[in-house]
Amino acid sequence: MLGRTDSRRRLLVLLLIFVVASLALIARLASWQVGQRDWLVGKAAAQTSVRVEEPTKRGEIYDRTGTVMLATSVARDRLVAAPKDLDPVERQATADELIRILGLDDAHAATLRDRMMQDKAYVILARGIEPSMSDRIRSASTAGTIKGITLESEPLRVYPQAGGGPHSTLAAQLLGFVNRDGTGQYGVEQQYQDILAGSPRVTIADRDAGGGAVPGTAQVAWAGAPGEDLTLTIDAGLQLAVEQELLAAWIADKAKSVSAVVMDPYTGEIYAEATYPSYDANDYGAVAAKDPNLFIDPIVSSVYEPGSVFKMMTAAAALENQTVTMQTKIKDTGILELDGGHAHVDDADHKAKGWMTFQDGVAYSRNVVASKVALNLGDSTEASSAILHDMWMRLGYGKPTGIDVSGEVSGLVNDPAIQKWQQIDLANGSFGQGVAVTPIQLASSYATLMNGGTRIQPHVVKAVGDREIPVATGPRIISAAISRKLVGLMAHVIATVPFYHDRTIVPGFQVGGKTGTAQIWDAKRHQWKVNLFNYSFVGYIARQVDRPDLVVAIRIEEGTPTVHKVGQLEMPVMSFELFRRIATNAIETPDLLRDRPIVPRDADQ
Fold first, then answer.
1. Higher pLDDT, 472 or 121
2. What is the mean pLDDT of residues 264-287?
3. Does residue 178 form part of some domain?
4. Domain range spanning residue 86?
5. Ramachandran assignment for 583, one of left (phi > 0), alpha (psi -120 to 50 degrees), beta (any other)
6. N or C terminus: fewer CB in 10 A for the chain?
7. Pairing of strands 473-476, 510-522
8. Domain count for the chain
9. Predicted pLDDT of residue 604
10. 243 in the same domain as 152
């Protein structure tokens, strides 16, 4: 006899399963209808409508006077075609006529023909078409010699000021450029992309079968906001003069590149900054295909061993720690044995000058003197290393300065607390070897040394719209008294060494600074490059004694000396000569120093 198959417990379990499943379905339905309503509505709308973003007018860029336009946007046309709607004969005839009108070379003609042969409803044939050329295309379309063609308006970024060298626009590496998508690349254009670009105008229209907008159905969802203009701290006249000087030095010295920065040591405003070779920002596509490295601004993005310009950092540390005075006598032995005889440093001429004052040791750029001073900063190599490294860090090395352009790098500075320095590391660091910095770091740190000891923020944008950018100053790094001594030391360098003096002085002004010449390590060949050196000079020009008006930093990368003797590596245009030319141009630039009164330097500054 078979048993009963019904069971109250089984029925209850089945009922519970159905209830749970029903509740889950209800919860899921509620989640869709309530929690995900907006998402579902958006998905449905996306299938029946099309969203179109139209960029608003990009802000313009002016020099510090507000009258010289450095970057602007103009309306140009892009030429589009619908080859899918044409038969092969019409495609070929249209392509031939467009090639004739546009005057294309063989390579560009082949590209246009290839695009016209594609079985697509929308292809871009050309961009940036001038109004006169657009008129010719419209006339041909009206006459029926070309078919399936449309001209669509699009903004084009242009840089109207010619640069100081051939095939370049003014301040190209500083400004950067704007690509076809309307996005800033490099420099100011990238750094201030959101401010310059504004927000796009957004419209929603019904979608047709081809995925395009149905005419007459567009509705504005967001009106957008135009970009704001920028006023830079750059003086266009000085910028052009600097670029011309860099070109001349680049040619004369057969250098890889030549760079310069002119800066206000009190506010951090950059009046000019440039490198040659430069490029034409209006033709960035061709530059990208040929040499995209030209887009990189070496002032902020390229590091190098600066050489003896770093002796001023050693001087700052020694004066602060009171281990030397300007008159302290130090014996220059020509060669200094270190680390138990396993390493050594030597002077450029390998000769001993004997006893000399500290200030003369800096003036004549004696590596042995700088090394001895660095080794005696503390009571041990470890302590001395910490003191020198601390000075470097306080002056801004090993980290970005914060300048308001894209692509700034930090430089390379080894921390002795992480990797212990040997005597040779400390000695090399005292005269700028074994450390990698950028020109903007050098200019910024020298500004601190000469402005009374206050850290400043280098910047290139003076105003956004009609809003002035407040000057950002940092903490005091060294005392005003030490700053005065360092300014005097820089002047002593120029006044003492005839080799510098005769080609650096500017009649009627005080000048001071420090040179640097450094060998270049070839990492691929694991040896020093032959007869190629990095030459630097950082200094100031002043209308009154001991109160610098401008700091100028020069870098000549891989310069080729025409006089190559022990202790003498001379080029047609030395770094300090280039400084004199640029400093003279700067001090004579109309209105550049108009707002700065000539006042005595306060002892409590």
1. 121
2. 96
3. no
4. 77-160
5. alpha
6. N
7. unpaired
8. 2
9. 43
10. no
User: Whole-angstrom distance between the N-terminal and C-terminal Cα of the chain?
Assistant: 113
491 occurs within a structural domain:
yes
Angle, helix 381-394 to helix 423-430, in steps of 10 degrees:
30
Which residue's structure tokens are 């467009």? 98
- Residue 37 makes CB contacts below 8 A (sequence gap 6+) with none
Q: Choose the final residue of a domain: 103, 136, 160.
A: 160
147 in any annotated domain: yes
Q: How far apart are CA 13 and CA 98, in angstroms?
A: 78
Query: Is the predicted pLDDT of residue 239 greater than 90, yes or no?
Result: yes
The DSSP code for 277 is S
Q: Identify whether the C-beta of residue 235 lies closer than 8 Å to the C-beta of residue 75.
A: no
Are 165 and 247 in contact by the 8 Å Cβ rule? The answer is yes
Q: Which two tokens stand for residue 472?
A: 């950002």
Phi-psi region of 598 (alpha: psi -120 to 50; beta: other; left: phi over 0): beta
Identify the DSSP state of 2.
P
Q: Could you tell me the maximum CA-CA distance found in the chain, to the nearest angstrom?
A: 128
In sequence order, the β-bridge partners of residue 61 are 71, 230
H or E segment and range at residue 319: helix 311-320
DSSP string for 24-58: HHHHHHHIIIIITHHHHHHHHHHHHEEEEEE--PP
DSSP 160-181: -SB-SSTT-BTTHHHH-EE-TT
**CA–CA distance, 450 with 547 (Å, rounded to integer):** 8
State which of 32-46, 64-78, 206-220 shows the largest mean pLDDT.
64-78
Looking at the fold, whether 533 and 446 belong to one and the same domain comes out as yes
Q: Assess contact for 274 and 173: CB atoms under 8 A.
A: yes
